[in-house]
Amino acid sequence: MAVERILKDEASEEKGDRARMASFVGAMAISDLVKTTLGPKGMDKILQSTGRGRSVTVTNDGATILKSLPIDNPAAKVLVDISKVQDDEVGDGTTSVVVLAGELLREAEKLIAMKIHPMTIISGYRMASECARDALLNKVVDNKDDAEKFRSDLMKIAMTTLSSKILSQDKEHFGKLAVDAVMRLKGSTNLEAIQIIKKPGGSLRDSFLDEGFILDKKIGIGQPKRIENAKILVANTAMDTDKVKIYGARVRVDSMTRVAEIEAAEKEKMREKVNKIIAHGINCFVNRQLIYNFPEELFADAGILAIEHADFDGIERLALVTGGEIASTFDNPESVKLGHCKLIEEIMIGEDKLIHFSGVAMGQACTIVLRGASDHVLDEAERSLHDALCVLSQTVNDSRVLLGGGWPEIVMAKDVDELARKTPGKKSHAIEAFSRALQAIPTIIADNAGLDSAELISQLRAEHHKEGSTSGIDVISGTVGDMAVLGIAESFKVKQAILLSATEAAEMILRVDEIIKSAPRKREDRM
Amino acid sequence: MALAFDDFGRPFIILKEQQRKNRLRGLDAQKANISAGKAVARILRSSLGPKGMDKMLQSPDGEVTITNDGATILEQMDVDNQIAKLMVELSRSQDYEIGDGTTGVVVLAGALLEQAEALLDRGIHPIRIAEGYEMASRIAVEHLETIAYKFEFGATNIEPLVQPCMTTLSSKIVNRYKRSLAEIAVKAVLSVADLERRDVNLDLIKVEGKVGGKLEDTELVYGIVVDKDMSHPQMPKKIEDAKIAILTCPFEPPKPKTKHKVDIDTVEKFETLRKQEQKYFDDMVQKCKDVGATLVICQWGFDDEANHLLMHRNLPAVRWVGGVELELIAIATGGRIVPRFQELTPEKLGKAGLVREKSFGTTKDRMLYIEHCANSRAVTIFIRGGNKMIIEETKRSIHDALCVARNLIRNNSIVYGGGSAEISCSLAVDVAADKYPGVEQYAIRAFADALDAIPLALAENSGLQPIETLSAVKSQQVKENNPRCGIDCNDIGITDMREQGVFETLIGKRQQILLATQVVKMILKIDDVISPSDY
């Protein structure tokens, strides 16, 4: 009697070595895919969406690439997930984490071919990652107390991050932008306070940081275009028709005159509301919702600048910069906190008019205006800058800094190798494999730059045999160089996150010996 | 036969449309059922024990789950076969009742079925086998009681509770961190446990997860963590000595359930209605303020106006808090859930020493911590981890550990793990078998063999020679008369499970044996399978 099918018709099941192979292949495919974007000479990818318009994204950012891939392989999904988490948690290193996990699995595959049990490999990997982290902790530099040095550290980190992106040509310019922006946050990691406005036109070099706040809105017609010593009321209230919110209320009238009366009352209500708002003694009113013509006219009459339909983030930021509160009722003008700024004016960037708030009370927020040749360039520039900002804001909190350019990987690999030699048993193979996986990252960076990786890595390892070496790969000149001199630095927090989550993910995939896929849910055809 | 003949010899049909049905009868049916049951057990077999492997499951929507937990694997497996569904049920009921040992119970049932197949081949009637199994399970359970060992623990001495929790966790992916997780689980259970009644309400323990950070950042919060933030971005992020009003009514104008209409036909009415509306909002906020609340937690949403009024009057508020969370907050803070503004009184407010908002990572994820509560009977275990799958798996592992701790509080007897209890029972059943005259004797002996399946699987998964190891341990048990000898999965050279610190709960083990026997009996009794054929 043959075994009956236990699973549903379209469900599939893969066991043992086949399952393991499927996950290795999937994971490695993903890591090979993003591998070529690694490092300062990494290449970009073009992604085309299947949605309407077939919009195109050109990017170098691992998380963005992986997010847009339609993936069916479950192991590959795990890698996509770690990349996403890396993006959310520290913002940068999204490619490295996937590549490292992929390399760990590639090494594991070789070990499994040597008949070493996955559990042994896992315990070896665990010991190795522990040891690698300790190695980093020993070498870490913390310049928190020295403001001058810390700033230069930040600058180095920003430039290192940016050097692998589209902004690499202007990395000094953007590095400075990013560091200035983050320093203004004064230690908070709330990146929302940094607004990025993209305006096509000009060149990337024309991008600038503005100390004030720029709102991408137009000023109402007939209202002042320039206000000094502005008092701003930031509001979230309906300025179209102020409906009666009591449920079930409806207007029922029996004659035309009544209609007119009600209409007048409605108008009166709006006028009253506007008057109340004006009574706050303001000269600028920013609302999240629409402002209809009638109230707009009233504001214009009172000489008040009214800005409608500022989105929610804009409102929150504006409230943050000007120090006002977001108001929705207007009955107590004396106790509502108003926002202040020295000057509001309309400015032109390219062809667009924007509203510029300068001399704001709370200097925590700022705006970065990005200029560039096309939307794709701007999008990529924004992503790159976002990465840099994330890393910097994390570094402000955890100011431990490492050198870059493959230096941390070789340092870790050296200590891990040491551990492998001391460990008896089969685990030592796994620990050695871990060190090989770590060295794969500088190898890939060198390969991407078209350098002789085998030669460079061996030189690098020889250099590191000396105590306290600061050598890394200098991609620009194609030799082994001193990273401390070249000013290539990375944040410890990012490296640690890469190490830990890559190991965790590799471990997770290694533990699997069976893959069961359910039948895909039937979608109704919409056509 | 589906075809019968009436008194006049005319054929008539009992089963309608019989050509469309698949039908299996007699021995064939039993064989088919057994093979299906065995197939399910085979899938889980490799997940057993500290060196067991995980399964990767892809749901119909493409979501990936990686787990080691028997109940979860079976639940998500998209099973179609009826008998296989029974096995899924079996694992689920172990999960509901005990929470742990969901893999073991299925493996045991599979082994019992396998043994039954051999007996069927020898021509023993399935009912006799079932009865033999029943007797054997009784013997095994009685024997378990004799080898069980009582663990004394107290509020200060939690070590005896931590050990069995660690045993549970050691087979999961979180095992590198099992010590701390086990301690977290035990502390959580102890803080909500009612030691007088020996009962634990696990609902009071909230398990919340957030991706990012690392497993080591997992913590036990004496209070509640809610995945929400303050309703207005400018409300204070930290409140000390909070008095919390817990509301289930929205900050919106009332919506009576009965159908009604308010007709506006004159200007005066329009005006009064407008005034009324404003007063509503004012009153609502004022009421909260009057009773002395410093924080409002609401199940529903706020109107923009109400939101601003709250902010304006310096009354921080949280909206859209789920019903279950609301209850937990009420329990933790000692407050009452208030359904109407009119019923707010100072006594109904909950108290918490500290309420704070905490943000994570680079996105704007924020969570609300309510800590130092008046009544710390509700706790939250807050899990961090490198990716979503790890978090989910950790949640399941923590659940298992919580269940183990709860079971120990209910009944503090333990048996030794590592297959030692099964081996010991197997020996006892084997000896007892000879006392039974009749065919059942064979079934009882088969039961003893089936019990060996668990240590066998353990040894196999750990990379040991299964039969060699098992026979060595068995002979050691008999020779030294020591029921604590088990499979040395971690390869440290000690077979005494007490020294290795591998413990399982008595009720868990007992339930495994009873449930597995029951299901196998049920499967054996089926002699006719009728299913609609695919066409």
From TrEMBL, chain A:
UniProt keyword annotations, A-Z: ATP-binding, Chaperone, Cytoplasm, Nucleotide-binding
The organism's place on the tree of life at top rank: Eukaryota
Gene3D superfamilies membership: GroEL (3.50.7.10), GroEL-like equatorial domain (1.10.560.10), TCP-1-like chaperonin intermediate domain (3.30.260.10)
GO molecular function terms listed in the Swiss-Prot or TrEMBL record: ATP binding; ATP hydrolysis activity; ATP-dependent protein folding chaperone; unfolded protein binding
Compartments where found: Cytoplasm
InterPro entries xrefs: Chap_CCT_beta, Chaperone_TCP-1, Chaperonin_TCP-1_CS, Cpn60/GroEL/TCP-1, GroEL-like_apical_dom_sf, GROEL-like_equatorial_sf, TCP-1-like_intermed_sf, TCP-1_chaperonin
GO CC list: chaperonin-containing T-complex
Family of the protein in this entry: Belongs to the TCP-1 chaperonin family.
Record's function text: Molecular chaperone; assists the folding of proteins upon ATP hydrolysis. Known to play a role, in vitro, in the folding of actin and tubulin.
Descriptive protein name: T-complex protein 1 subunit beta
Organism per entry: Nepenthes gracilis (Slender pitcher plant)
TrEMBL record, chain B:
Pfam families noted in UniProt: Cpn60_TCP1 (PF00118)
UniProt-annotated location(s): Cytoplasm, Cytoskeleton, Microtubule organizing center, Centrosome
CDD domains hit by this protein: TCP1_epsilon
GO molecular function: ATP binding; ATP hydrolysis activity; ATP-dependent protein folding chaperone; unfolded protein binding
Reactions accelerated catalytically: ATP + H2O = ADP + phosphate + H(+)
SUPFAM superfamilies (UniProt xref): GroEL apical domain-like, GroEL equatorial domain-like, GroEL-intermediate domain like
Keyword line: Acetylation, ATP-binding, Chaperone, Cytoplasm, Cytoskeleton, Hydrolase, Isopeptide bond, Nucleotide-binding, Phosphoprotein, Ubl conjugation
Family membership noted in the UniProt record: Belongs to the TCP-1 chaperonin family.
Self-association and partners: Component of the chaperonin-containing T-complex (TRiC), a hexadecamer composed of two identical back-to-back stacked rings enclosing a protein folding chamber. Each ring is made up of eight different subunits: TCP1/CCT1, CCT2, CCT3, CCT4, CCT5, CCT6A/CCT6, CCT7, CCT8. Interacts with PACRG. Interacts with DNAAF4. Interacts with DLEC1. Interacts with SPMAP2.
Function: Molecular chaperone; assists the folding of proteins upon ATP hydrolysis. Known to play a role, in vitro, in the folding of actin and tubulin. Component of the chaperonin-containing T-complex (TRiC), a molecular chaperone complex that assists the folding of actin, tubulin and other proteins upon ATP hydrolysis. The TRiC complex mediates the folding of WRAP53/TCAB1, thereby regulating telomere maintenance. As part of the TRiC complex may play a role in the assembly of BBSome, a complex involved in ciliogenesis regulating transports vesicles to the cilia.
Name listed for the protein in its UniProt record: T-complex protein 1 subunit epsilon
Species, as recorded: Nepenthes gracilis
